[in-house]
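Task: sequence design from structure.
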């Protein structure tokens, strides 16, 4: 598997440093981006309602961080696994069902998972086309993928607090959120893949976010 400095990966190297400057290719920031909340129970309830995981299904969490959602998902299916590229997060994982990996270059065979989900991860990724290509590759035909990402009037709007809290510079919010995403942009990104857009909706759970549900054509 690629290491944390692989192109297209999300790691502290790709996030502005605590000095308030965006890192260069060789610079290593003192602190990487940290999520404000490890687990949002209201958001998880919405996820489970629409994902409908079954006990024997294989479910993949892309960008799982320390695995809080993976651990909660274990109550619904024994086949859940999470992948994250942050070695620091994995050292502090709350469940053994998480492993190291680049979510734009997954180490899984085609058609490996019945369902895939990713929560507040894609807005940080440089290579969104490659991410959706990998989702399409590892998802079984007829399988469901749920992607949750921030609703924003402008890019970085929902990252301003994190930029101030961690870097003391609100302007770095645009470095934390590399994209302003909408259901329309998701439909554009999946064009040419076996994924189809089933539906999108706003979710109000400790903030406002989009939830987009995709299906892989059979």
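Answer:
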């Amino acid at each position: 598997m690629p290491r944390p400095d692989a192109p297209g990966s999300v790691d502290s190297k790709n996030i502005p440093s605590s000095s308030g400057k965006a890192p260069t290719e060789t610079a290593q920031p003192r602190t990487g981006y940290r999520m404000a909340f490890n687990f949002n129970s209201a958001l998880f309830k919405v996820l489970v309602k629409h994902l409908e995981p079954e006990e024997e299904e294989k479910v993949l969490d892309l960008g799982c961080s320390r695995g809080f959602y993976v651990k909660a998902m274990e109550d619904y299916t024994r086949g859940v696994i999470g992948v994250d590229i942050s070695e620091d997060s994995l050292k502090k994982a709350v469940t053994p069902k998480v492993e190291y990996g680049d979510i734009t270059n997954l180490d899984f065979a085609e058609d490996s998972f019945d369902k895939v989900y990713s929560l507040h991860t894609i807005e940080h990724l440089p290579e969104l086309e490659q991410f959706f290509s990998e989702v399409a590759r590892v998802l079984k035909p007829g399988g469901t993928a749920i992607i949750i990402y921030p609703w924003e009037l402008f890019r970085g709007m929902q990252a301003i607090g994190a930029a101030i809290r961690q870097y003391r510079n609100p302007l770095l919010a645009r470095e934390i959120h590399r994209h302003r995403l909408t259901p329309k942009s998701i439909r554009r990104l999946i064009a040419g893949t076996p994924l189809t857009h089933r539906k999108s909706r706003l979710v109000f759970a400790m903030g406002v976010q989009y939830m987009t549900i995709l299906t892989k054509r059979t």
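The longest strand covers residues 139-150.
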